[in-house]
């Protein structure tokens, strides 16, 4: 069965599977177990690692810009949408796999097959959608890769300067690059579990130490923290929360390699457990721009498109509530994308021209 899961099905083969469905109920999860390697706790460790991210400690600055009340509300709303949209995405992929009777499909292929299930005017864009998804996944992961190299280099450089004095930023990046590249060349998520576990432990210890010093001087730390502040910063803040808490490629890869994928999306599955316990956002203008361009569409709007096509023409439930929900997700993702791009563009302009933005 290994060869079946890894096989790339041609369009003709998939059409034949549509035209000649078997009478038996096909469960993609059952056929995927033979190639799965991740258990429940393995998936949980990877999820925590991907959600914690590298810029978790910059969250307080984001709260300061929009106000802590607005920050909490926006974070809660966006994270709820992230979890809901991804569950919708995973179920859409599973449903199209069931209809095509294949164990698993890549994101781009699954999107194209879902579009084929939709109205005739949508079907003509099926190949364009697949290319769009694949292209933006590449852009997103490239941007995230640059972000992590920058963050690690900056942190190590500060430590070296503290102990030894001046060191060139580019030299630190050059010295660290081989180690970072070596880790990224490990393809099997199972092999990366110990590294993710070590990273999680290190981050949690660091957070505990920082919390200790903050609470030891709480009056000074929280004295200038406002409940409400700059509302124009909210669109950029949404993009930052998205990127901090939604590593789409990792989420899909974990779901694909879990031995019991049903536990991934269950009420107490890995996905819900992690997102219920981690609510601290990321913060940086450049990576927010990447999130606005890629994640708002791929992570929020696209699951709505896929679900709407799969339910076409008349499986939207009472009052077409599912269609209303999907349209809302599509609209929210597009608006957040446009607003995030515009806001990030102005922020980059103000930062590099030195103009004061109030």
UniProtKB/TrEMBL annotation:
The chain crosses the membrane at residues 40-61, 67-90, 129-148, 160-180, 192-214, 234-254, 261-280, 286-306, 327-350. It is a multi-pass membrane protein. Pfam families: Aa_trans (PF01490). It is found in: Membrane. One of its GO terms (molecular function) is L-amino acid transmembrane transporter activity. The keyword Transmembrane applies. It comes from the Eukaryota. Residues 38-279 form the Amino acid transporter transmembrane domain. Its main location: membrane. Keywords: Membrane, Transmembrane, Transmembrane helix. The keyword Metal-binding does not apply. GO terms for cellular component: vacuolar membrane. This is Amino acid transporter transmembrane domain-containing protein. The lineage of its organism: Eukaryota, Metazoa, Ecdysozoa, Arthropoda, Hexapoda.
């Amino acid at each position: 069965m290994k060869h079946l899961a890894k096989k790339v099905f041609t369009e003709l083969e998939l059409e034949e599977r549509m035209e000649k469905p078997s009478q038996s109920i096909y469960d993609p999860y059952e056929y995927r177990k033979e190639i799965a390697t991740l258990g429940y706790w393995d998936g949980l460790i990877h999820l925590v690692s991907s959600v914690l991210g590298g810029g978790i400690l910059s969250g307080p600055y984001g709260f300061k810009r929009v106000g802590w009340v607005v920050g909490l509300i926006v974070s809660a709303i966006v994270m709820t949408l992230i979890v809901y949209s991804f569950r919708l995405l995973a179920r859409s992929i599973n449903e199209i796999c069931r209809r095509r009777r294949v164990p698993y499909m890549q994101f781009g292929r699954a999107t194209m097959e879902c579009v084929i299930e939709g109205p005739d005017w949508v079907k003509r864009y099926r190949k364009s959608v697949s290319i769009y998804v694949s292209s933006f996944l590449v852009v997103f992961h490239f941007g995230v890769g640059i972000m992590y190299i920058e963050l690690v280099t900056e942190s190590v450089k500060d430590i070296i300067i503290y102990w030894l004095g001046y060191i060139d930023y580019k030299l630190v990046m050059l010295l660290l690059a081989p180690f970072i590249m070596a880790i990224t060349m490990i393809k099997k998520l199972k092999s990366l579990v110990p590294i993710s576990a070590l990273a999680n432990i290190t981050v949690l210890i660091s957070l505990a130490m920082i919390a200790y010093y903050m609470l030891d001087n709480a009056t000074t730390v929280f004295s200038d923290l406002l409940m409400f502040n700059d509302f124009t910063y909210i669109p950029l803040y949404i993009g930052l929360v998205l990127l901090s808490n939604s590593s789409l490629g990792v989420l899909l890869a974990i779901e694909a390699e879990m031995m019991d994928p049903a536990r991934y999306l269950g009420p107490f599955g890995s996905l819900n457990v992690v997102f219920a316990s981690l609510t601290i956002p990321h913060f940086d203008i450049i990576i927010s721009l990447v999130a606005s361009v890629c994640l708002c569409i791929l992570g929020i709007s696209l699951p709505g498109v896929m679900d709407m096509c799969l339910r076409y023409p008349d499986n939207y439930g009472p009052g077409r509530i599912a269609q209303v929900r999907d349209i809302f997700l599509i609209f929210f993702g597009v608006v957040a994308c446009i607003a995030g791009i515009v806001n990030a563009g102005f922020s980059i302009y103000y930062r590099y021209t030195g103009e004061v933005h109030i």
